[in-house]
Amino acid sequence: MADALTRSMRASHVLVAILVIASLIFAVVGAALGDTFYLRLGTEALIFAGLALSVDILLGYTGLLSLGQALYFGLGAYVSALVLMVTPSFWAAMGATLAVAIVIGLVGGFIANRVRGVFFALITFGMAQVAAKVVYNTRALGASDGLIGVPIINVNFGFASVSSASPAGFFVLTLAFIFVLYALSAYLLDTPFGRLVIALKANERRVPFLGFSTVTPRLTAYVIAAVIAALSGALYPMLRGFVSPELLFFTTSGNAVITVVTGGVGTLVGALYGGILLTVLKSVVGSYTEHHLIVIGLLFMIAVIFLPRGLMGIVRPAIERMLEPRAKP
Predict the structure, then answer these.
(1) What global pTM score does this model have?
(2) SS (H, E, C) the chain
(3) pLDDT of 169-218, one tens digit each?
(4) CATH number of the domain to which 152 belongs
(5) Domain count of the fold of the chain
């Protein structure tokens, strides 16, 4: 008999499968029409959905509100851009980003996890602000202009290759990459480690009485979230051909939090749907008015007041009921 977490995860898997199928149809239609703008926009939406996924791991399952995930997202973007400008290799960029994210994630985790609650949020915010200021004033990193001139790359899989200049091809590659990040996250959170992390959120003081450490799982969750954010950010310069220090600003972190709350905290899949919704909404509204942040703010307020469980709080329970085995008469 599956427990509540396993049932909810199964429902999330169904919603992710629907998202993947819809995305593939979108890619096929876009390629047939020769579209570039919407495929690029969809790719960007998936990248920022990966950032939101990292926020949801901390907020939804560990109970830690990070206001500084932009630190790792921007870090991944800059490391990827620097590597690509030296050697245009997707695998080298991702490998370097992974290594740096683990090291910086450990350092950041040791600092941030010394406190709880609002102090954790403020420390993560502070670390991101410090990093943003350093990058903004470092000429070797392009300073306020960022890094431009990231080359077009071909991602070689042996049997086939995908060019970052191909709107449909790179969209599908990004979709597959974000899906892998989701699948790994869902797997880890459905293991005993995931149960322990959730127990920390429920009541941290009781966990030691069960014979478990509270430091290691919390730090591990923090590093996993940092790695996911950095790897998602590493795709950004491949898409846009440049990186900007704005990726490290609070706006990036704040949008990720809004995305998670709108989609549904503690659902994982809500981060993906919320990321796509927010990115598309910003683009559509931004084409009519420069005050699109007002609309985003109103959306966040509506989600908090009327949809405390987000969009997935409405959709996922219905999927769970559909997946429940019917009792035999």
Answers:
(1) 0.92
(2) CCCHHHHHHHHHHHHHHHHHHHHHHHHHHHHHHCCCHHHHHHHHHHHHHHHHHHHHHHHHHHCCCCCCCHHHHHHHHHHHHHHHHHCCCHHHHHHHHHHHHHHHHHHHHHHHCCCCCHHHHHHHHHHHHHHHHHHHCCHHHCHHHCEECCCCCEEECCCCEEECCCHHHHHHHHHHHHHHHHHHHHHHHCCHHHHHHHHHHHHCCCHHHHCCCCHHHHHHHHHHHHHHHHHHHHCHHHHHCEECHHHHCHHHHHHHHHHHHHHCCCCCHHHHHHHHHHHHHHHHHHCCCCCHHHHHHHHHHHHHHHCCCCCHHHHHHHHHHHHCCCCCC
(3) 999 999 999 999 999 999 998 888 888 888 888 777 788 877 777 888 89
(4) 1.10.3470
(5) 1
